Amino acid sequence: MIGIKSIASYVPAKGVDNYAQGAKFGKDQEFIFGKIGSTFLPRKDAAQETSDLCVEAAKALFAANPSLDMSSIDALIVVTQNGDAEGLPHTAAIVQQKLGLPTHIAAFDISLGCSGYVYGIYAMKGFMEAAGLKNGLLITADPYSKIVDPEDRNTTMLFGDAATATWMGEGAPWQLGKSLFGSDGAGAEHLRTTEGKFFMNGRQVYNFALVKVPAHLQQLLEASKLQPEEIDLYCLHQGSAAIVDAVSQRFNEGKQREKFVKDMVETGNTVSSSIPLLLEKHVLGSQCRRVALSGFGVGLSWGSAIIERRD
């Protein structure tokens, strides 16, 4: 059974003071910390491409796992909607070359945003098991700094750049359990790019998350024959502090609120990287045994899943 063996990340050291950004738009520190949830937003260098962020995360993964040899990688998936240059060729091919991975690997992109990690781990698991592969790299990198307008108060205070790399393979301590997915293209207009610039209807996205995510988590638990209290942590996409707080309050009447991880102060909304950043920091190596994940955003698209630690 293919599962999650290790996760590593790359978060650029340079970035933007979000308090300073807020002041420019007439937003005080209470709003920035309490509603946005991020006081610092990491930003890639102008010369860095999406593939460079991917490479840095992968190098961190290999450094943390000396037993993992580059020559043993069978599959590489990059989750991004902001690939290198104009998106052709696919970023995974560029990452393969930059890392020096073998040419016999399967390498392709998944064009998904904030739900992308949940989709990605199941796409990788299914692909590897169907093809009889042993070791896979799932990389997330979606630098929204490439498309966000710094003068757009609705988006520029939210997003940070980051990348993560997940080693998936046999004998993994974290196994993938039940999952549920959804798509609603009728909401496509609420999160989109037009002429290379990102647009977001924040109110509609907030309402979508508040209506969809708590119910989806409940459906997932019912399908898994689990009670809310049997989950050790809930790791949601870190869209904003307001979204995480609202979902945690609505789910199960707020009875599990303390189990909802909120950690975006120095990263911001990192799109497909937000959930694996939480897993790296709060789950892998912890005493948790069962964790719920939920990603939601561009599409509109959403995906929720249970992962379980197997000793």
How would you sum up this structure, described in words?
The protein is built from eight helices and 13 strands. The model has no long low-confidence stretch (mean pLDDT 96). It has 311 residues and is of the alpha/beta class. It has a five-stranded mixed beta sheet with strand order 1-7-6-4-5, with helices on both faces. The protein has helices at residues 18-24, 29-36, 50-64, 91-99, 116-131, 202-224, 241-250, 274-283, and strands at 2-10, 15-17, 40-42, 75-79, 106-110, 135-141, 163-170, 174-183, 191-194, 197-200, 233-236, 290-297, 301-309.
What's the layout of helices and strands?
Layout: E1 2-10, E2 15-17, H1 18-24, H2 29-36, E3 40-42, H3 50-64, E4 75-79, H4 91-99, E5 106-110, H5 116-131, E6 135-141, E7 163-170, E8 174-183, E9 191-194, E10 197-200, H6 202-224, E11 233-236, H7 241-250, H8 274-283, E12 290-297, E13 301-309
Parallel strand pairs: 4-5, 4-6, 11-12
Antiparallel strand pairs: 1-7, 2-3, 6-7, 8-13, 9-10, 12-13
Helix pairs in contact: 3-4, 6-7
